[in-house]
Design goal:
Blueprint (H helix, E strand, L loop, with lengths): L2 H22 L5 H17 L14 E4 L5 H11 L38 H16 L5 E6 L6 H12 L5 E7 L2 E2 L2 E2 H4 L5 H7 L3 E6 L3 H13 L5 E6 L22 H14 L4
Parallel strand pairs: 1-2, 2-3, 3-7, 6-7
Antiparallel strand pairs: 4-5
Helix pairs in contact: 1-2, 1-3, 1-9, 2-3, 2-8, 4-5
Bound molecules: thiamine diphosphate and magnesium ion.
Organism: Candidatus Magasanikbacteria bacterium GW2011_GWC2_45_8
InterPro entries: THDP-binding (IPR029061), Transketolase_N (IPR005474)
Protein name: Transketolase N-terminal domain-containing protein
Length: 275
Amino acid sequence: MNAHELALTANSIRQDVIKALVEAKSGHSAGPLGLADVVTALYFEIADIDPKYPWKETRDRIVLSCGHYCPVLYSALAHRGYFPVSELLTLRKLNSRLQGHPHLRCVPGVENTGGPLGQGVSLALGMALALKLKGNPAYVFCLSSDGEQQEGEVWEAYNMAAKYKVDNLTYIVDYNHIQIDGPIEEVMPLEPLVDKYRAFNLNVMETDGNNMAEVVKTLRKAKEHKGTPTMIVAHTTPGKGVSFMEKDYRWHGKPPNVEEAARALQELEAAREKI
Ligand SMILES: Cc1ncc(C[n+]2csc(CCOP(=O)(O)OP(=O)(O)O)c2C)c(N)n1
Ligand SMILES: [Mg+2]
């Protein structure tokens, strides 16, 4: 897919995130909307995956460490053909496979159980190292959030990833500057974040995480890089595409009500013409 087609797909994925959240009456809005472009680029262009064979040994793995972002994971998987788009409306319902935090292998394409922040970062390292030791050519991408960088565990993982030169691994941190209780800068500042990753001997890149052409270019470069693990700092706008949700931490864990969802969908639909 070219960048234009990918951006349109990301818009559709965002619309289904809104539809699932309003139906669920609970869940996370801001993070999933902000990361939709990166997630779309991974599932539709960069990762070597096939929804017909979701557990193929040599598939690339996409680990969602910030499990609360799962509305965008589910929406991307459904649009990619892993399960019907209509199932998205079962988000967070009793007996649904699509729970508020993802569960390992319950849903085709879901590679890890998520929720406790930090764990997926270590898990992705273990996966990548094991694949490398086995001679499996699969590549591992790990999506992580900025609030998650406050967990000590992630720094242990970066330390080890660099030591063992785990170069079949790219971390993508969603630097959206919000977390559950407020702006990152107020709750627990991370700066100078890029310098910290460099000091951990990671191959650090930055991208505008809401510019599809740039996202694709950066992810491609990351996958080609040899010798060290890669860290992509993706600068995104939380709530991207829905004006009243953008850059407002209060949308961290809140779904739109019926009227807000209608407005959100209207805005997203109108934006398609400008893509
Ligand atoms: C180990 C752990 N501690 C606390 C939480 C509760 N929690 C869920 S999301 C979240 C905020 C994390 O920040 P971020 O992912 O940057 O938030 P967002 O950008 O989605 O608003 C917290 C503290 C958790 N899931 N896991
Ligand atoms: Mg955040």
